[in-house]
């Protein structure tokens, strides 16, 4: 060992008198993959054990950064693109988004009867591309007990809500506690839509239908029908922008050998049945392309009181779904050879549950061409829910929803009267 020490003694002298120089040499050796035994044997210069106080090299421990978890809750009744955009914004404030879905009992106590069941609302929220976890039966107000559960059990860092006030029946702020402890963050409300607005559109369409009946009980037709409908229809306040579409888009195309599946429809009042059929369609390929029909096409095939949601509103709801890769905004009614070739479609699918006006018997099959090419498949719809059945729930409980909307309309008017600019998107 004495011979070895003498042989490499110049190294020890160098370390003592020129620490910075030898530190650089050791780093260079490590980068070049040279054996550290050359510089002194016995592994004494192994990089992990260099001491910071020697002035040679300081190894920093690579600590894994803890992911920020944020929480946002809501009723998510009659799920729309405003809900989706709120959750998209919430996700940008952290790494993982946990969403609480308020229980039926809490909604009844604070707002009135929900249109959709808990199961349906859970399916819609879970189907959004920005959601990582879901908590069922969340309370309407953030109580101290539930807040501690969020912080300790679910490891939540911040609680998120929109800039519009959320007041309890007694007039207090539902998020007061979260604000007091400094764990509250705010996002911008999405203008132009709300569940209250959608209920209003449905009730308005029912009124239109009743108003279009003449004294003998037969429906008006042609220009007279359209004129009455256009005057009394509930106008959407949505202002579509290219930025919003980009925010919702995956911004990725299919791979060179991807199996592209195509499904089309109105996707009006986006519901749990839509989520489930899109999920099943996506499993049949590598890329799911969804065609959303124009307002005119929907109106022609379902009646003049449809669609309830307009083309861009419906397109955003579809784009927000985690199973959807791309959307054709304003897809043709018939799936043509040109559409199949342009998008390199491998398979065209359609659900067993669909809504069409019974007066259109004998009409050309919109799937005739993909059927003739042997690339059409009929999918069993996982749920029987339809846009019409959702609307009928509101009509059946008409008085309750009129009362609920009147109450909510007051707070909405107050919000817009006092509205100021809020940064965000």
TrEMBL record:
<keyword id="KW-1133">Transmembrane helix</keyword>
<keyword id="KW-0808">Transferase</keyword>
<keyword id="KW-0548">Nucleotidyltransferase</keyword>
<keyword id="KW-1208">Phospholipid metabolism</keyword>
<feature type="domain" description="Cytidyltransferase-like">
    <location>
        <begin position="262"/>
        <end position="352"/>
    </location>
</feature>
<feature type="domain" description="Cytidyltransferase-like">
    <location>
        <begin position="71"/>
        <end position="200"/>
    </location>
</feature>
<dbReference type="InterPro" id="IPR014729">
    <property type="entry name" value="Rossmann-like_a/b/a_fold"/>
</dbReference>
<feature type="region of interest" description="Disordered">
    <location>
        <begin position="205"/>
        <end position="226"/>
    </location>
</feature>
<comment type="pathway">
    <text>Lipid metabolism.</text>
</comment>
<comment type="similarity">
    <text>Belongs to the cytidylyltransferase family.</text>
</comment>
<feature type="transmembrane region" description="Helical">
    <location>
        <begin position="20"/>
        <end position="50"/>
    </location>
</feature>
<dbReference type="InterPro" id="IPR044608">
    <property type="entry name" value="Ect1/PCYT2"/>
</dbReference>
<dbReference type="Pfam" id="PF01467">
    <property type="entry name" value="CTP_transf_like"/>
</dbReference>
<keyword id="KW-0812">Transmembrane</keyword>
<keyword id="KW-0472">Membrane</keyword>
<dbReference type="InterPro" id="IPR041723">
    <property type="entry name" value="CCT"/>
</dbReference>
<keyword id="KW-0444">Lipid biosynthesis</keyword>
<dbReference type="InterPro" id="IPR004821">
    <property type="entry name" value="Cyt_trans-like"/>
</dbReference>
<keyword id="KW-0594">Phospholipid biosynthesis</keyword>
<keyword id="KW-0443">Lipid metabolism</keyword>
<protein>
    <recommendedName>
        <fullName>ethanolamine-phosphate cytidylyltransferase</fullName>
        <ecNumber>2.7.7.14</ecNumber>
    </recommendedName>
</protein>
<feature type="compositionally biased region" description="Polar residues">
    <location>
        <begin position="206"/>
        <end position="226"/>
    </location>
</feature>
<comment type="pathway">
    <text>Phospholipid metabolism; phosphatidylethanolamine biosynthesis; phosphatidylethanolamine from ethanolamine: step 2/3.</text>
</comment>
């Amino acid at each position: 060992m004495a011979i070895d020490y003498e042989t490499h003694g110049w190294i020890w002298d160098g370390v003592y008198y020129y620490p910075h120089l030898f530190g650089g040499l050791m780093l260079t050796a490590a980068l070049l993959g040279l054996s550290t035994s050359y510089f002194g044997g016995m592994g004494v210069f192994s990089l992990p054990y260099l001491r910071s106080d020697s002035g040679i090299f300081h190894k920093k421990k690579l600590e894994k950064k803890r992911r920020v978890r944020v929480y946002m809750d809501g009723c998510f009744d009659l799920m729309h693109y405003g809900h989706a955009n709120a959750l998209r914004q919430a996700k940008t404030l952290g790494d993982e988004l946990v969403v609480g879905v308020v229980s039926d009992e809490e909604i009844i106590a604070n707002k009135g009867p929900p249109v959709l069941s808990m199961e349906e609302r859970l399916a819609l929220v879970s189907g959004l591309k920005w959601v990582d976890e879901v908590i069922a039966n969340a309370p309407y107000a953030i109580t101290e007990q539930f807040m501690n559960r969020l912080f300790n059990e679910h490891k939540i860092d911040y609680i998120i809500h929109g800039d519009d006030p959320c007041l309890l029946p007694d007039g207090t702020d539902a998020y007061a506690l979260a604000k007091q402890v400094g764990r509250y963050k705010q996002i911008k409300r999405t203008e132009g839509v709300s569940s209250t607005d959608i209920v209003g559109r449905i009730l308005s369409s029912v009124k239109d239908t009743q108003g279009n009946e003449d004294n003998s009980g037969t429906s008006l037709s042609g220009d007279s029908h359209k004129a009455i409908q256009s005057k009394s229809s509930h106008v959407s306040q949505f202002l579509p922008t290219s930025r919003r579409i980009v925010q919702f888009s995956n911004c990725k195309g299919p791979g060179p050998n991807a199996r592209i599946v195509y499904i089309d429809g109105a996707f009006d009042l986006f519901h749990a049945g839509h989520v489930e059929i899109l999920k099943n369609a996506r499993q049949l390929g590598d890329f799911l392309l969804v065609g959303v029909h124009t307002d005119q096409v929907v109106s022609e095939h379902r009646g003049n009181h449809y669609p309830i949601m307009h083309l861009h509103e419906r397109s955003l709801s579809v784009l927000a779904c985690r199973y959807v890769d791309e959307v054709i905004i304003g897809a043709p009614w018939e799936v043509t050879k040109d559409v199949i070739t342009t998008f390199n479609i491998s398979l065209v699918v359609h659900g067993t549950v669909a809504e069409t006006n019974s007066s259109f018997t004998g009409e050309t099959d919109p799937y005739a061409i993909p059927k003739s090419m042997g690339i059409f498949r009929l999918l069993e719809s996982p749920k029987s829910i339809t846009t019409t059945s959702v609307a009928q729930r509101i009509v059946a409980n008409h008085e309750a929803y009129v009362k609920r909307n009147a109450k909510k309309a007051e707070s909405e008017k107050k919000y817009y009267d006092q509205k100021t600019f809020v940064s965000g998107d």
